[in-house]
Design brief:
Layout (H helix, E strand, L loop, with lengths): L29 H11 L4 H8 L16 H11 L3 H5 L4 H8 L30 H6 L16 E2 L4 E2 L43 H16 L1 E4 L2 E4 H20 L3 H9 L21 H15 L3 H11 L3 H5 L7 H6 L24 H15 L5
Antiparallel strand pairs: 1-2, 3-4
Helix pairs in contact: 1-2, 7-10, 8-10, 9-11
């Protein structure tokens, strides 16, 4: 795979197309496709990316989130694929629908699972369906497996997996060597991800997944009997994810009563300590949370309002200190009590700020007199 330069400027560099054409498969992520291209040509993903982009270490970034227009153009010229087709294999168009705007390039993206890393800690791992991997003629990773609300394969009615079935390592396909049989092999031990044990799905989590997919696909979804634009629907859903996680850490009181009236319960203890972003949680934890959020998101407006009033919960208990109710929730709850304390207001004419020294001395002498102590 040799490259030819037509001039000294990087922008004018022309890359010769690689030997074997490798098509993008249905729903495939850009990173998965690059790994398959590399293995098809008998090289590692790192070698392939260095050939396409000699001055850029592609795999230290998350290529599934998208790459610059210039680099995307170089990849299109090398592969023979259309730029728009390559961009559609990234998460950027989906994130724009979720947020209602272009998300910040270097920020964490709501509802998008970060790319897995080899470092320990709370780094997540890409998900996969063992049946899909086992039955694919050429196994590959789907783009929608990077969406945090996806915990179920609806085609095979099984929960998604997120680790190697043999060694438990994270799924990091860009670390595969050129000898790997396909793109869905564990980079650490070489096990086939398609051999993972099938796990039971949660019906409520699957229902939430279908509703979120509808919001993403059509740009809107139903919440409390109203049709919301996708960004507002995802904002409301994320609010209740946070509310349920908070209630799970501190069960009891009016928050627990509200969940009971809505026909749901706090999620079981998470496998990772509190403070970990929802998108970084393992599939098991996210499924447990979403399965309990769905009865709330699927409530009728009158039933939701009745549950809130019967629980006695206040706005402050609903949204926490310094937070704000999403507009869609606020519109549905005009009668929720507001227990915020009025800020202290000084009496009219009373000065604020530091007092004069003579006033402090006078106050101190008065105190000493009341205590029977000698004056200063």
């Amino acid at each position: 795979m040799a490259a030819t330069d037509t001039g000294p400027a990087q922008a004018s560099r022309v890359v010769r197309r690689w030997t074997l054409p490798v098509p993008l498969l249905r729903g495939e992520s850009l990173g998965s496709w690059l790994v398959r291209v590399a293995l098809s040509h008998g090289c590692s993903p790192g070698i392939l990316s260095a050939w396409v982009w000699p001055d850029w270490r592609a795999w230290i970034t998350d290529v599934d989130r998208g790459i610059s227009s210039e680099r995307l153009g170089m990849l299109a010229q090398a592969s023979g694929l259309d730029v728009d087709a390559l961009r559609s294999a990234t998460l950027a168009p989906l994130a724009e629908v979720i947020e209602g705007a272009t998300p910040e390039a270097n920020a964490a993206w709501n509802w998008i699972i970060p790319r897995g890393r080899t470092t320990p800690g709370d780094s997540p791992s890409p998900q996969y369906c063992p049946v899909c991997v086992a039955t694919d003629p050429d196994p590959y990773l789907r783009l929608h497996w990077r969406l945090a609300w996806h915990t179920v394969c609806t085609s095979h009615n099984t929960r998604l997996s997120d680790s190697c079935p043999e060694c438990g390592a994270k799924v990091i396909p860009h670390r595969l060597r050129e000898t790997a049989r396909h793109a869905c092999i564990c980079a650490l031990c070489g096990a086939n991800l398609g051999d993972a044990t099938l796990l039971e799905r949660d019906r409520n989590a699957a229902a939430f997944q279908s509703a979120a997919d509808e919001a993403l696909r059509h740009g809107s979804a139903t919440f409390l009997d109203s049709r919301l634009e996708a960004p507002e629907w995802f904002q409301a859903a994320r609010f209740f994810v946070s509310f349920l996680r908070q209630t799970s850490r501190h069960p009891g009181g009016t928050a627990l009563s509200l969940l009971e009236h809505l026909g749901t319960t706090p999620a079981p203890p998470a496998s990772r300590p509190g403070g970990v972003a929802f998108e970084r949680l393992p599939t098991t934890d996210r499924q447990a949370i979403l399965g309990r959020v769905w009865p709330i998101m699927n409530s009728r407006a009158d039933a939701f309002r009745d549950a809130v009033l019967r629980s006695g919960i206040s706005r402050q208990s609903l949204c926490g200190d310094g937070q704000k109710l999403p507009d869609a929730v606020d519109r549905a709850l005009p009668d929720v009590p507001d227990n915020s304390r009025a800020r202290y207001r000084p009496r009219s004419g009373r000065p604020t700020g530091p007092r004069d020294r003579h006033e402090v001395v006078r106050m101190m002498n008065r105190l000493r007199r009341d205590l029977g102590a000698p004056r200063a």
